Amino acid sequence: MAANLKNAAAIVGAAESNEIGYPEERGPKVTSLQHHIEAIKNVSDLTGIPISDIEGVFSTGWSQQLAEHLGIRPHYLDTTTVGGCSFQVHVHHALAAIHAGIIDIALVSHGQAGWSYRGAGGGGRPVAGEIDPGTEMTIPYGVFGAPSNYAHAMVRHMHRFGTTPEDFAHVSVVTRQWAMLNPRALMFSKDTNPFGGPITVQDVMEARLIAWPLTLFHCCLVTDHGGAVIVARPEIAKSLRTRPVWIAGAGESMGHQNMLEMEDFTATSASRSSAIAYEMAGLGPQDMEMAMIYDSFTITAAMTAEMLGLAPRGKGYTLWKEGHAAPGGRLPINTNGGGLSFNHSGMYGMQLLVEAYRQLSGTAEDGVHGIEGKQTNARTCVVNGTGGTLSTTGTLVLASDE
Amino acid sequence: MAYDKPIPPKGLHTQPFWDGAKEGKLMLPRCTSCNRVHWYPRLICPFCHATEIEWIEGSGEGRIHTFAVQHRAFGGWAKEVPYVTAYIDLAEGDRMMTVLRGVDAEHPETIEIGAKVRVEFEEADEDTHIPFWRVAETS
Q1: A248, A281 in Cβ contact below 8 A?
Q2: How do residues B70-97 score in pLDDT, each as one tens digit?
């Protein structure tokens, strides 16, 4: 029987790199490392925790390089790389490491120049001489990146539940509304981007088709981002100038790696990761006052809302369609504008964490983090990251002091 | 015209599949312990974890589980857009991916989940005949 880790640690600060989105005006490209380092410096300044006090470093494969670059010698290293939900998983692991008494202060860091270095990656080409059989048996079939895969899940959802592309379009419309309250959002306005907010369901439906039924506006952005959070044990969390946001529950789970092995195309492992997190927290979906849900695509957010118990099966989209998820609604969702309208660097889980921290610490609205109307009254938030092709999930149940 | 779409490198334990494909046979891995067919090919049965896997000739029949219409593609696929990718429930169990043939990509509403499909092979190079699935005339 696992120990109950409820509130064994808190997120004590969250920050981003200096310029996110499309940072082209800056001249030379911003590197992923630079996004990391700026965010780490900013979260250290925010919390007053010296970088030299960091004992554990959690990142998607960067931990050694970051520690060396920062001139620190951590005694706990984690490089878990499971796609966009990696950062929820890092917080889960940091919680366990702190609970076990191995470290007191953990850094979780993200840096990804998704825009600056778009197209520069490996492009998914197999390495000669070694290929996993799942890739071998899918590579001939003309799927390119996430949208071409995720569309299959949306079609199955439509078949099973009678949902329509218009139903899912509401997710995009509502996240634009939130983006209009966030000056750092790429889709803040028509001035910041021709596709910026506000948009209508008709706009979503008439946008360029990427992979039917997904149009461009059903798909997340590709941007730059850096972000970092610090996780610390309760005694430290209570002593800082920043407000702690408690990790009441945490869980992770995987359904598959290759979409070939996705047993039910209308469900993800978030049902399991959230069940673990809710149980640890002693809270349920009915206790959540807001949610940060990975929205790589409209279908991802709507389906995940069902998995998290926030809506009945097949009805996730109604949270957006009926306005509950929107500014002023009863269950605000993706209050930063989401991956659809704020920022999505490739792995979006850090953006979820940063916004959840700001909302629950009361710092979501100050001109940099948001303008009037962005700050909610929420004291609890379920945060769910999704990685791969609806593959792996990490869920956190976060709570403020009140 | 030479085949201009991605041709997979061959793994170390999948050769019977490619050998069968050259003869127009859909070879499938089956566990000799629990008798279940699995896809993609494993080094260990994902159901019972036995390691004795045999290859059987499949019926080449299945049904559409779900699909999508690709409008954005690269390389050899770019000139084919729009085309329909799909996951196929095999008659023997488990699921394969494919590009569907015999469907109207411009009218996805005419494509039926559950429709019967049959496998066919296209020669990509001397060693590689790639399976594609075609919707049967009547479902």
Answers
A1: yes
A2: 999 999 999 999 999 999 999 999 999 9
Please give the pLDDT value at position A130: 62
Look up residue A36 and give its two tokens.
């990391």
Give the DSSP per-residue string, A181-203.
T-TT-TTS-TTT-TTPSP--HHH
Distance, CA of A245 to CA of A265 (rounded, Å): 34
Instruction: Respond yes or no on whether ipTM tops 0.95.
Output: no
Answer yes or no: are the C-beta atoms of A316 and A301 closer than 8 Å: yes
The mean predicted confidence, pLDDT, of chain A is: 94
Could you read off the pLDDT of A5-63 as tens digits, one per residue?
999 999 999 999 998 998 765 556 788 888 999 999 999 999 999 999 999 999 999 99
Handedness of CA A95, A101, A106, A108 (dihedral sign): negative
Domains in chain A with CATH codes: 10-118+221-399 (3.40.47.10)
Sign of CA dihedral B108, A259, A254, A146: negative
pLDDT score recorded for residue B138 = 56
pLDDT at A402: 64
| Probe site for chain B from A132, A137, A156, A214 (most B CB atoms < 10 A) | A137
Specify the 3-state DSSP secondary structure of A353: helix
Instruction: With beta carbons less than 8 A apart as the criterion, state whether A186 and A195 touch.
Output: no
pLDDT at A137: 93
Does residue A124 register a pLDDT over 60?
no
pLDDT in tens, A220-262: 999 999 999 999 999 999 999 999 999 999 999 999 999 999 9
A38, two tokens? 């700026």
Q: Please say if the pLDDT value at position A125 is more than 50.
A: no
Q: What is the DSSP letter of A342?
A: I
Domains and CATH numbers, chain B: 16-135 (2.40.50.840)
Q: Which residues on chain B place their C-beta less than 8 Å from a C-beta of chain A?
A: 5-11, 13-14, 39-42, 65-74, 77, 80, 82-83, 85-87, 95-99, 108, 113, 124, 130
CA distance A344 to A355: 13
Contacts of A90 (CB under 8 A, 6+ apart): A58, A59, A78, A80, A108
* Residue spans of alpha helices (H) in B3-101: 15-22
Q: Which amino acid is at A53?
A: D
Two tokens at A266? 């209308």
Per DSSP bridges, beta strands A245-254 and A392-399 are antiparallel
Instruction: Please give the C-alpha separations between residue A382 and each of A252, A378, B132, in angstroms, as whole numbers.
Output: 13, 11, 42
Q: Do A142 and B77 touch (CB under 8 A)?
A: yes
Q: How far apart, in whole angstroms, are the C-alpha atoms of residue B56 and residue B54? A: 7
